[in-house]
Design brief:
Keywords: Glycosidase, Hydrolase. This protein is an alpha/beta fold. The protein is built from 21 helices and 13 strands. The protein has an eight-stranded parallel barrel with strand order 1-2-3-4-5-7-10-11, surrounded by six helices. The protein starts with a helix and ends in a 5-residue tail after the last helix. It binds ligand GBH. Ligand GBH binds next to loops.
């Protein structure tokens, strides 16, 4: 973070880190504590919490339109109202402060401020809302970490030129970002351009599970949208650095999401396959920014001319274009070289993941069609990996994602070793949804995996920092409150705070108080 950037010491070398972890004394980190100025926070995103979908001059986003397309979202849910944060913002910020949060990550809705996507057409009331939010945060001493794009593209730009599939997106995103720096950069010192390029491009243009819901050309669209997204990121960062950094003195980066792909065995084939898993999920975005400015070789080889290339000028712009490494992490998968027997064994799980997160079988079919058509290229075929069964005894969250904290530590180390990101790694999301059908079930945290989950994941992060020397500088829990979980709808509850969707009442769950203790002591509660 901005303050961190200048103050934070270099990561401890491995040996020293180990020694200091063992040694006693007031200055050394105690058994379960974190570096002194570690940033703790919680996160949300505009479309998932705000509601007020057509109020005060807001334009439609691709998620407004997608969610209202029949068959897209489980239970026909949508974000029209959800938490109604737009009207309950003051209450929410106060609760956040009461719980002891000092850092808050939220996102701006582009069409709320610019209904047509064009910056010439400003919706003042939309801008006012974020001004009030930021002022409120500042009033309580909460540091805003602001994401420019958490998936709600103005529908007008989707209609105009196909959104991210067009090169025109790059300029429009740059102009939009520039306006945001101008409006809010006096108070916002920490910026994230995009949340989770992999989800945007793979789920939005590969599986059609997310807006804009395309699944008919996954062998090109995933790469084309990724390419434009990366360029849009680079140009937005360039504007920030050239026009705003000197006066506003903030930092700007990007947040990538990745599972950890654990090799199914020690064989060379399985290790290579797992590495391809990492290449196609994480490195496809990380290598252009923190590496040599190119896409990973495995992707270049597999996709050939379907993969666009960067010019020299673009490579220069991309390399080093993130002041920190934002990381969202949720789960670990076992990956290996494709084998028909294994594919058949794990097929039911793959299909279950798709069907449980899509509103209708028609959409599932659309997603699968290109995969089983031998003549159609696909990002998924290029990846050439098969998901292996998880170890016996593996627990799953209600999303169906494996609870595997060891993978978090491995992923942090992978990023640290491969990219050594200047400015460190900020975990901008981590968390889980549990079954909480009633307020009572939400209160009974012992009946859920919530506290054990966070405890185990944070312990692995701590080990990565203290024992392995990974330069992790912050952690944001997903999510501050229950919200609209995209195509899965509203039943998947990720919140530290429960939201009653009838009365809109907020009630902190036991995990929220657990976080209060964690943050107060900078140590994992016993
Ligand atoms: C994030 O995306 C989003 O940023 C956020 O808006 C969302 O609400 C939150 O997470 C919770 O979903 O099938 O075991 O391989 C989530 C990214 C990508 C994480 C797919 C889980 C599949 C796990 N997800 N991944 S697994």
């Amino acid at each position: 973070m901005a303050k961190a950037n200048s103050k934070k010491p270099k990561p401890m070398p491995k040996k020293a880190a180990k020694a200091s972890a063992k040694a006693k004394g007031p200055k050394k980190p105690a058994k379960s504590s974190f570096p002194e100025d570690f940033d703790w926070g919680c996160a949300t995103a505009s479309y998932q919490i705000e509601g007020a979908h057509d109020e005060d001059g807001k334009g439609k986003s691709i998620w407004d339109v997608f969610a209202h397309t029949p068959g897209t979202i489980v239970n026909g849910d949508h974000g029209d109202v959800v938490c109604d944060h737009y009207h309950k913002m003051e209450e929410d910020v106060k609760l956040m402060s009461d719980l002891g949060f000092k850092n808050y990550r939220f996102s701006l809705s582009w069409p709320r401020m610019f209904p047509t996507g064009d910056v010439k057409n400003v919706n003042k009331k939309g801008v006012d809302f974020y001004n009030r939010l930021i002022d409120e945060l500042v009033k309580y001493g909460i540091r805003p970490l602001c994401t420019l794009y958490h998936w709600d593209l103005p529908q007008a730009l989707q209609d105009k030129y196909g959104g991210m599939l067009s090169r025109e997106f790059v300029g429009d995103f740059k102009n939009y970002s520039e306006k945001c720096f101008e409006f809010f950069g006096d108070r916002v010192k920490d910026w994230i351009t995009f949340n989770e390029p992999s989800c945007i491009c793979v789920l939005g243009f590969g599986l059609g599970m997310h807006a804009p819901g395309k699944a008919d050309n996954p062998g090109e669209d995933v790469y084309l949208s990724s390419h434009h997204l990366l360029l849009a990121h680079a140009y937005a960062v360039d504007v920030y650095r050239k026009k705003f950094r000197k006066t506003q003195k903030g930092v700007i980066g990007i947040t990538l999401n990745s599972e950890w792909w654990e090799p199914a065995s020690d064989s060379a084939e399985d290790r290579q396959a797992a590495l391809r898993g990492m290449n196609f999920t994480l490195d496809i975005y990380a290598q252009p920014i923190w590496g040599d400015g190119e896409y990973p070789k495995s992707i270049r080889d597999a996709a050939g001319t379907r993969l666009p290339r960067f010019s020299l000028k673009e490579k220069k712009l991309l390399r080093g274009s993130s002041d920190f490494f934002g990381l969202n992490h949720y789960s670990t998968r076992i990956g290996g070289a494709p084998k028909l027997s294994i594919a058949l064994q794990t097929l039911p799980r793959e299909i279950k993941t798709l069907t449980s997160g899509m509103g209708s079988y028609g959409r599932v079919l659309n997603a699968i069609k290109p995969m089983i058509n031998p003549f159609q290229p696909s990002y998924f075929k290029d990846m050439d990996i098969v998901s292996y069964p998880d170890p016996i005894g593996t627990e799953y969250t209600t999303m169906g994602w494996a609870v595997a904290p060891y993978g978090f530590r491995k992923l942090l180390n992978y990023i640290q070793k491969l990219y050594k990101p200047p400015g460190g790694i900020i975990v901008t999301e981590n968390g889980l949804a549990t079954d909480e059908p009633s307020p009572e079930s939400a209160k009974a945290d012992t009946n859920t995996t919530r506290i054990p989950f966070f405890k185990a994941y944070l312990e692995e992060m701590r080990k990565a920092i203290v024992e392995d020397g990974a330069d992790v500088r912050g952690y944001y829990a997903w999510s501050f409150m229950d919200n609209f979980e995209w195509s899965f709808g509203n039943d998947k509850r990720f919140g530290l705070v429960r939201v009653d969707y009838e009365t809109l009442e907020r009630t902190p769950k036991p995990i929220a108080h657990w976080f209060t203790k964690l943050m107060a002591n900078n140590a994992i509660p016993k």
